[in-house]
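Fold in tokens:
===
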Amino acid sequence: MAVGTSRPAERHGALLCPMEGPAPGAGGLGIDPDDLPDGLVVADEHGRVVCFNAAAARITAVRAADVLGLPLEHALPLEDLNGRRWWTLTDPYGGLATRVGQPERNLLLPGGREVLVSARYVRERPTGPLRRLVISLRGTEARRRSERSHAELIATVAHELRSPLTSVKGFTATLLAKWERFTDDQKRLMLETVDADASRVTRLIAELLDISRIDSGRLEVRRQPVDIAAAVGRHVQAHVTNGHGSDRFLVRIRRDLPMLWADPDKIDQVLGNLLENAVRHGAGTVTIEVAPATTAGPADAECDEERGTAVTVSDEGPGIPEESMARVFTRFWRGSKRGGTGLGLYIVKGIVEAHGGTITVERGPGGGAQFRFILPVGAPAYLA
């Protein structure tokens, strides 16, 4: 963006920096710096501030009218984390003529407030004198939230890994040291415990990989025909095999279901998580209903709706408080104190959305939680 050094015009307490000409591809419209989400400070060839937009005024808590025309080092007295004056250290006007800017880094405003600063050196020609110094300012709040989220994730993972790994280490060390002292039944029990704890660690690692792929947009979906009714039946049978009564589950499969093209492993992951939540955190009968549904079609499609499959899982437990509904699909949300990482529903939402579907939660007919996800048919183009 080219910003002129003509006479400044003040607008709503911040400087309006006129464009030097029509912006390419912008239909000849200029850009008002106050419309930018980040702080913008521009100094001319003499190092004096000629632009200080509204975001910069908000971030620095300094009025634009108080700094326009001042030398940059006085208008924006930044220091690095070691207390050194930043503009003296970098010397943009007298330093190497080959430099083109400064990468973003944490610097300190007067009073110790941190701000993210990057700069671009605008020259009339390579290695020529500096014509303009363009500085971008951003607050650190978003980065701090991200850092807190990462720290919480690390703490959660460390906590969840410690218990099974301690168990694995303890049983294997005991077996290696005193193998002859145990009966075959005792050995089998300890090995089964080790196997279960190893599976728990494997599941946690898989969750972390899924979160990484979801956050980076790299979650791959390998579509193939999925018999969703059979998949529901397998998960219900697994819970019955693990000791839950068959009368705990009510399965309703509507007729004339459309053929669903989806990633079968990931759909199993979604179903497994929702059923596990209903069994562990809910009460009463767990109802699973599979029915045809309609979803919003693509914007350029001839039809506004397309066919899909809806799966609803509900229980008769205490349900989810109204004030918690908006946080159900966020990281680390736990509906009760019965363990878990709080990552499952976040992953479920990521998987459903990777299929182009939607998922919602509300209070069910029996008073408990009701989760409903809808997947578009998703048939390959050659079958459309």
